[in-house]
Amino acid sequence: MEGLKQIASVAGYSGLYRIVKPGRAGVIVETLDGKKTKTMMGPTARVSVLNDISIYVDGDEDNESAPLAQVLQRVNEKYGENLTVNPKGTNEELAEFMATVVPNYDRDRVRSTDIKKLIVWYTTLRQYAPEVFEKDDTVPDTEPADVAAEPATDASADNADAPVDKAETAE
Questions:
Q1: Predicted local confidence at residue 53, as pLDDT
Q2: What is the pTM of this model?
Q3: Are residues 73 and 124 in the same domain?
Q4: CA distance 130 to 47
Q5: Which residues contact 171 (CB under 8 A, 6 or more apart)?
Q6: Pairwise CA distance, residues 29 & 18, whole Å
Q7: What is the longest distance spanned by two Cα atoms in the chain?
Q8: Under a CB-based contact definition with an 8 Å cutoff, are residues 120 and 87 in contact?
Q9: Strands across the sheet with 38-41, in order?
């Protein structure tokens, strides 16, 4: 689920955001909804990339958490588009849902608000960014392109694209 590297949550703001461009003064984000509103989040904003978030689980010290990507994938495999739980449900319903997805989740450290957030995020991702649940084929394509770009600059005299590269660097 490499797509989660471009999706973030911002503390104090509702919803999810797609990271458009990091900059010196912060990061430009776009709402992950129908409006697609772009906003500049300053350097003091607490932006959490979904790929870096995890859920506490019971277990040995080496595996005290499960990556959010893995949890979202389990929800997708189990429920798909037919998520039967309501984020406004009772704490017992939320706990039961979480137990079906991650049976060994830490019931002391994972609060019902965390489960609600998981459900809302999953629903938002399914609706506005379904590509994060697809198999990621972009990683192999990106690596050869980076490797191919390096020799082009080293062998600029032999490469037909070299004048274009030089012109671009002159701008």
A1: 95
A2: 0.75
A3: yes
A4: 21
A5: none
A6: 6
A7: 69
A8: yes
A9: 38-41, 26-31, 16-23, 7-10, 47-49
- On whether both 56 and 127 belong to a single domain, the answer is yes
CB 51 within 8 A of CB 68: yes
Q: How many other C-beta atoms lie within 10 A of the C-beta of residue 72?
A: 23
Task: Give the contacts of 15 (CB within 8 A, at least 6 positions apart).
Answer: 31, 32, 33, 124
Residue range of the domain that includes 70:
52-133
SS3 labels along the chain: CHHHHHEEEECCCCCEEEEEEEECCEEEEEECCCCCCEEEECCCCCEEEHHHCEEEECCCHHHCEEEHHHHHHHHHHHHCCCCCCCCCCCHHHHHHHHHHHCCCECCCCCCHHHHHHHHHHHHHHHHHCHHHHCCCCHHHHHHHHHHHHHHHHHCCCCCCCHHHHHHHHHC
Q: How far is Cα of residue 125 from the mean position of the Cα atoms in its chain? A: 9
Amino acid identity of residue 114, one-letter, is: D
Which mean pLDDT values do the consecutive 10-residue runs of the chain (171 residues) have?
90 94 91 92 94 89 86 94 92 96 94 96 94 65 36 38 40 39
Residue tagged 């929800």 (tokens)? 75
Report the number of distinct structural domains present in the chain.
2
Q: Which amino acid is at 27?
A: V
